[in-house]
Amino acid sequence: MLPETSRSARLRPRRTARFVKIILGLGNPDREYALTRHNIAWWVLDHLAAVWSYDGWKRDNDALVASGVVDGTRTRLIKPQTYVNLSGVALRPYVRRPAWSAATDLLVIADDVALPIGTFRIRRAGSSGGHNGLKSIEAALGSREYARLRIGIRPDVEPGYDRWHADFVLSPVGKEERATITGLMPTLTDAVELWLREGSDAAMNRFNR
What we know:
Layout: E1 20-25, H1 40-51, E2 58-60, E3 63-70, E4 73-80, H2 92-95, H3 102-105, E5 106-116, E6 120-123, H4 132-141, E7 147-154, H5 165-169, H6 175-198, H7 200-207
């Protein structure tokens, strides 16, 4: 687990919650994958759970979840336990709720081999970009209308890295890369908190460069 990065300001929970926001991170459950590039989203979820002082992770059907209230909004962090390719299964209970909308209430965090390491992008909607986890989310929702935060893992190599990218994403993150990602955690947290408060457009306008 990555160490928590200290922040000067945190959102404080309130007793009254408005509705449920879901933040789902793509990753694989076995211990052997814990420090791989494909599990970077789970590092972010662990960081958020620590920053928001959540009680811990609990099993809920096909996922591990951590829940709480952030700035008046009920928020649930989700780690699917079905492996990346079947991540959408964890959303089935929420899709059936009439008051819940993926377009406004879901943020999916994923690694992205098309983005350089140390960068990230927020999108309101779009294609899977070849990411099997995002394909599964899209299939479960029947829609591409959901926010996603994609964290760059692309190495500084010559063109052609995509030929071995399957092995690359399932390989452990190196020491320097890990330091880069750890250093990005406070900014990622700010981006997620802005999404919670004001939605995708506000987060995109502030953090996409």
